[in-house]
Design a protein that fits this description.
The chain is α/β, with parallel strands linked by helices. Helix content is 50%, strand content 10%. The protein folds into 2 domains: 207 residues, HUPs (Rossmann fold, 3-Layer(aba) Sandwich); 92 residues, Tyrosyl-Transfer RNA Synthetase (Orthogonal Bundle), CATH 1.10.240. The chain has a 6-stranded mixed beta sheet, with helices on both faces. A two-stranded antiparallel sheet has the order 7-8.
Amino acid sequence: MDPIELVLRNVAEPQEEFVMTIDEIEGIVKEGGRPNTYVGYEPSGPIHVGTLITIYKLRDMIEAGFHSIALMADIHAILNLKGPQDVIKEVSMTYWKTVFHELGSPEIEIVLGSDFELSEDYVMDLLTLSQKVTVNRAWRAMTIIARGKDPMVSHIVYPLMQALDILYLGVKVAIGGTDQRKIHALARDVFSSPVQLRVEKYVPSAIHLPLIPGLEKGGKMSSSVPKSHIAVHDPPEIIASKVKAAFCPPWNESFDEEGRLINPMLAAMKYLILPWKSPVKLPRSRSRGGGEIEINSYEELERAYREGEIHPLDLKHFVAEHFINEFKGLREKFMSDPDLLRPLYELQKWQKEKGLFGEKEWKDALESYKPYLGDVS
């Protein structure tokens, strides 16, 4: 595949809004030399299928000639009160690192935020940025991520750190979900201004990927709500159960009022399966004659689903089987070395004790750990 096509695969539409900018991206690709690209993550919970779109994108970027970095933003997670630093760092370098190398590529570089974000140069640059960005501008960049919370000072610091991370990692193309667009716009604006920093300053480019809707109607995938997501370490029977119960409406109810896809099964096919696995064969509904139907693209899937050729239950079964097979290698790694998974359990136990999720959610989480860690509580 052409390098530009790889970079732009799965980018949110319209590209004019979610690519900053196409001309810049083309110039970076043509220049060559393995430029840096990255995604920043709060490694504060289980990795679920909503994260896969960026993991796969880091793999795409490697194939397109980039050096891909996964930033384990442990300091950001602490700012958001997600856990103690020592546990978050351990989760980053065990569970998260294993998943990225298994499902993405062993070439993805894993970097801890605390390895450079506590340096004197970084802290002084952060203070300099705090003098150049208004509170209102910083909060506007965070509102989608913080989701209407009464802002804390940490929420204002967060986007300034995320902007600085790009420079300190030497990133030419930053990657994020559509909820990161305002932060990247802030970075581009402030770094094109006369602000004096200790780190080398330049204007980064950025691409943004769609957010995968949660399994429950109207919700997002949340690491603290197990039934809202498929975790990469979920046993096959739990994956099957979650998908069976998932929201999967008829075609005319699969989009919200703004035209965004809210059917998680169709979203999984569009962004996580068909770009890499096609053609695929699904059962044709009995009302349309039975047998099988071959799907070569998402557009073909849309048409078949809209016309009733594919039943929602058959679509669910296909998605469940895909992820059961996709995560098989990971499950085997966790079975052979449970210590790769244990730090995540310890982190979620801490979060439970701090009231970050309830008894029911904790019980669901424990079921996913049982094959690897036994009956823990």
